[in-house]
Amino acid sequence: MQQPKIFTHKTQWSSNPGPNPRPTPSGHLLTDPTPTTPSTPPEAIEALDDRALDNSASAAAASNQAVTGPAAFAPSSGGSGDGGGNGSSAAELDARYGRGRRSRRPLIIGVVAVVAAAGLAWLAWAAIVGSNPPVTSRLLRFEVTSATSATATIQVDRTKSVEANCRLQAKSADFSIVGELTLTIPADSPRHQTLPATLTTQRSATSVVLIGCTTADSHRPH
After folding, report:
1. Four-CA torsion 138, 144, 145, 151, nearest 10 degrees
2. Taking the model in full, what pTM does it have?
3. Is residue 2 classed exposed, middle or buried when 0-12, 13-18 and 19+ CB atoms within 10 A define those classes?
4. 185 and 163 in contact (C-beta within 8 Å)?
5. 29-39: pLDDT as tens digits
């Protein structure tokens, strides 16, 4: 603590601003011994400044080592060098924004659409052809005349003058085929006609069935 100053002259005042002096019995002025804050020596201030500079230099060196060190240029696990880093960044961006490899879904959808269109076209063609066949036939009546014979009458209609083949079968009680006959209708014959047919059977038949008529262009019996 600083010692109080004693002024020996009545007219002399301390140049330091401070508390008001007070006279003593001997006529001297005595300042109030108020405690003051001790000042820091210049040597201590210089030492503190040097230590702060050393700490700042150490922090800057550590920061530079973290930025430019080997870890900053280490390749990613996805590849080597710059290419690996770019690939890793691209993969991260794709994962973040939902982007991926080009999907094959449009190609699959296109193939399915083509196959479906082809199927629909074939069905339309089959429906048109099936609804207007070149020849149609129907069984009008049949009769079992004996154990080895049966007769039938069929009606044949053609939309154009083509040769047609009409097939009939004779069946027994157990639905076995016991006789069969194919009638050939010439192309220059009438398009609408009624034809008789006689079938020879191996044993007694119980029914006669018309399978249908076909042409060279239509192999499905009608």
Report:
1. 20
2. 0.45
3. exposed
4. yes
5. 545 555 555 55
